[in-house]
Structures are given as C-alpha cells and as structure tokens.
Write a structure and sequence with these properties.
The protein is an alpha/beta fold and 479 residues long. Strand 13 and strand 14 form a beta hairpin. Strands 5-4-3-2-1-7-6 form a seven-stranded parallel sheet, with helices on both faces. Strands 8-9-15-11-12 form a five-stranded antiparallel sheet. The chain contains twelve helices and 15 strands. The N and C termini lie far apart (78 Å). It binds ligand FHN. Ligand FHN binds next to loops.
Length: 479
C-alpha cells in the first residue's frame, strides 16, 4: 500500500501529538495536543484537547497572575446571608453569628423561614463599593454561598436562593456592577461544605428537609454548576475564595480537580488554599501538601513573612463574628485594624477585612466608622502599603517597615522615649521626610550600630506615622 503525502503528514502529526507531554498552562496560554494535528493540516478533526493541569504552572506565570493581588494588599470581605435575619439571637443566646444554624441546631425547616424575612430594601451597592474604595480597599470578596447553602444569587441549580425571598433583585449582580464602576475587583467566597444540600455527605441531624441519601458524586456536579454560573454571569472575577474544606467528604484530590475546574472557566482567576486540604488550621498556611494560590491565615497575621513567591492574605473580623450580630460589643479599634493592615504588608501579605451587613442591607455603623478612619490613614499613607514588599529586617518594637524600590517606609506606632529609631541596616539615604508632611525633613545618620533616625518632637498620626526614606543603592541588613 503506498502512503500518500497527506497520510504521512497525518501519521507524523498523530505521532507527535501522542508523544506530546500533558498539556500545561503556558505563559502564552494553554497549549493543547490537538493543535499539533491541526498545524500539520491533518484531514481528520483535531484530537480532543487534553485537560490542562493548572497546578503545573511555572513560578513566572504564577507571579504574573498574582501581580495585582501582590500589589493591592488590601480587600474587603463581606459575609452576607440569611444568618443576618436572626442577627445572632436564638433561644436564650444572642452571641451567634453565621454559624447560628449549626450552633443552635436550628431545624432547617425553621431556618428556611428566614428567607421570607430577608428583604434588604436598604441595600445600596454603590454605597458599599464607595465605602470599600474610600477605605483604600482594592477588591471585595462577597459570600456567594456560606455553609448555610443559601445562594445569594438567582441560581438555576436550586430554589434555596435569593429568589426564595421577597427581595426580587439580584444583589450579586448589583454589587459586581458597582465594583466595576468604582474600579474594584469583584470576587467570591464559596463554601464547599453545605448544611442544606441533601447530597452533602456529612448531613446534619437537624436537616429535616433533606431527602434521599447523601452522595458526593451528586453534590460536586451541583457545586461545579453553581460555580460556573458565578464565573460566567458575574465575571471576570479576581478570586474564588473557597472555605468549608475541613470535613471528611472533601479531599486533596477533589480540591485539585476543583482548582483545575475553576481555572478552566477563567484561567487567570486566583484561588485560595482552602480549595484543598492544605491549610494548617487558623494559621492558614500550607505545609507544602496543598493546592491553591495563596495562604489564608485567619484572625491573625503570621509572626514573620515567607519566602519569595509565597502569597498569603490574613482575613479578620472587626468584631467577634463574620456574619452580622446585633449585640456585637467587642469591636476592634481603628488603630488595631490599621496596625493589622500595616503588619500584614510589612511581612509581604494582604489584609482582608470583614464587614457583616444587616438583613436590611446596611453596614453596621461601627464598621462604617472604622472604614472611614482607615480611609483617612490610607489617604495620606497608601504609598507605604500598595506595591510594597516585606521589611528587609526583623519587626522593630516601635512599629513596622515596608519597602518599595528605592524607598523604605517606617511606620511608627509608638515612638521610643529618646525619639531615636536605630535600624540594623546600612543604607545611603538621599532624603527622609514625613508622608504626612513632605516638607518636614527627618534627620538620619549611619553609625556602626546601624541607621539612626531622629523623630520630630511630635508625630502627626497617633495611630501610625510614616517616615519615608529615599535610598540610593543597596539596603543591607546588619547582623
Ligand atoms: O466557618 C467559616 C467562618 O464562618 C468564616 O467564613 C471564616 C472566614 O474565613 N471561615 C470559616 C472558619 O475558618
């Protein structure tokens, strides 16, 4: 049998495709085996594209994808769901939050009645976006679905959604649009664990509306279908922020599959490490066996930074709970919140600060006040946060240090009694001044002990005064 030229080309193309390595996410975009056959002008349709394993991304490609996150440093978390209706109260307790169904063991048939009362007529997406932007936040992560299983958007996969309420609008669409109007990235928090869905394997005894048997092979396609709606109807998204990964039905393998699935929907989306099983409790950082793009310390800022290429974001509440609690009285001060933001940035991380809106659609006044205080500080000092990297030296007792190209920023929380900062580093300082008043020069001197900075007699910001050092050449940490 004589082979025609085109047959030889096709055989060659098929041989090449068969030998091609598994398709990997490339910087120029995904390369798929089928492309080889097409390139050879094959007469038969291209081979089915091999699924892309996005976990095999190069460090350079990941750094490009993470660049906005690594620059922006500061976002708003919003926990908003049916738990805002009881607002922490059930039985003789008033200290619940978003876990009220679980902790109060509320029968789901009772919990469903909250949907009839969720009518946030005072919700104003532009007001929310403006408060985030004015606080200096660059992205918003909104709970699409928390552990209660309630979808904040009109999902087609279930009737346990905003369409069950009298609200009659899509708050997710409204906030996504407001974020784009105000130049904020929009992102979702999505709980893997689902206390409502009958197929979620660890079904609760008080789920008295679930029928049939649990089945993760049914639940996972349901979850993927909802995630597809979120990415395709409200995207492009900055982040898919997973949570609720700690129970036994969820596995590392399922996390890798879900990571690849979501990235196949939007390849440049960021996905946190709670998509898999890697986070070590509240410290939130992988011990190397996880999957996901960044670590998620919770209610804490790590004691030190991490190696280059390790991305992380500390998430925190302003009070005790993530979801709205009407009797909340343990609010962190604005000073504490500003210090958490600076502390995270000084270690090369991000800060995701939470607001729990009311069932009427309002931010609590205490949250509004703190956001405004943070905004006043960021208005003067944001250059010492955005685009900065971790301090070149250990955390000093008087405050924190961030750096950016030829700048060092000294965030002074508590000035030493003698008004002298001694930094164990060698630097050629061209200029030193207060960010709050660039005309006010600050004296520095290089001594054998290190770089001495003499503070002005009074510091303009009692929470954190920032001194900018413009340097020339290398900044070297001294032993
Ligand atoms: O159980 C949730 C909790 O309600 C909240 O959403 C936090 C936010 O990071 N995550 C889980 C606890 O780690």
């Amino acid at each position: 049998m004589t082979l025609r030229r085109t047959d030889c080309l096709l055989l060659a193309a098929l041989a090449l495709a068969a030998a091609a390595p598994p398709a990997r996410a490339q910087s120029a975009g995904p390369v798929q085996a089928g492309a080889t056959a097409r390139a050879a002008g094959a007469l038969t349709p291209a081979l089915p594209a091999a699924p892309i394993d996005y976990t095999q991304e190069s460090a350079e490609d990941k750094a490009r994808r993470m660049a906005w996150f690594n620059h922006d440093r500061f976002g708003m978390f919003i926990h908003w769901g049916l738990y805002a209706v009881p607002a922490g109260a059930w039985g003789d307790r008033t200290d619940y939050g978003e876990w009220i169904m679980e902790q109060a063991r509320i029968p789901v048939s009772e919990y469903e009645k909250f949907a009839d009362q969720f009518n946030p007529t005072k919700f104003d997406a532009d007001a929310w976006a403006r408060m985030a932007k004015d606080a200096g936040m660059k992205y918003i992560v909104l709970t699409s679905k928390h552990h209660e299983g309630f979808a904040l958007w009109p999902t087609k996969q279930s009737d346990w959604s905003i369409e069950r309420t009298p609200f009659g609008r899509d708050p997710v669409a409204e906030l996504a649009a407001a974020c784009r109007r105000h130049g904020l990235r929009f992102a979702f928090y999505h709980s893997i664990m689902d206390w409502y869905h009958p197929a979620w394997e660890t079904r609760r005894a008080w789920n008295d509306v679930a029928t049939g048997s649990t089945n993760m092979e049914e639940y996972i396609p349901f979850m993927k279908a909802q995630l597809k709606e979120l990415v395709e109807n409200y995207g492009p998204l900055g982040i898919m922020w997973f949570d609720g990964e700690w129970e036994s039905p969820w596995t590392h393998e399922r996390g890798v599959d879900l990571y690849n699935y979501v990235r196949s929907l939007q390849p440049d989306i960021l996905i946190n490490n709670r998509v898999g099983k890697g986070r070590a409790g509240m410290s939130g950082m992988d011990q190397g066996q996880g999957v996901g793009d960044f670590g998620t310390p919770e209610q804490e800022v790590p004691g030190t930074g991490f190696a280059p290429g390790v991305y992380w974001e500390s998430c925190m509440t302003m009070g005790d709970t993530w979801g709205y609690n009407a009797t909340e009285d343990n609010w962190k001060s604005s000073r504490q919140l500003i210090h958490h933001l600076i502390d995270a940035a000084s270690k090369g991380g991000n800060y995701l600060l939470n607001v729990g809106p009311t069932a009427e659609g309002l931010f609590p006044q205490e949250s509004i006040d703190r956001l405004a205080d943070i905004g006043r500080w960021m208005k003067v000092n944001s250059e010492a946060i955005y685009g900065t990297t971790a301090s070149p030296i250990a955390t000093p007792a008087w405050g924190r240090i961030t750096q950016k190209r030829d700048r060092l920023y000294l965030h002074v929380f508590d000035a030493p009694a003698d008004g002298q900062l001694v930094l164990p580093l060698q630097a050629n300082v061209r200029r030193a001044y207060l960010l709050a008043d660039r005309r006010q020069a600050v004296t520095t001197a290089q001594t054998p002990a290190g770089l001495t900075v003499t503070l002005p007699a009074s510091l303009p910001d009692a929470d954190a005064t920032v001194i900018a050092l413009e340097t020339r050449g290398a900044v070297t940490a001294l032993d």
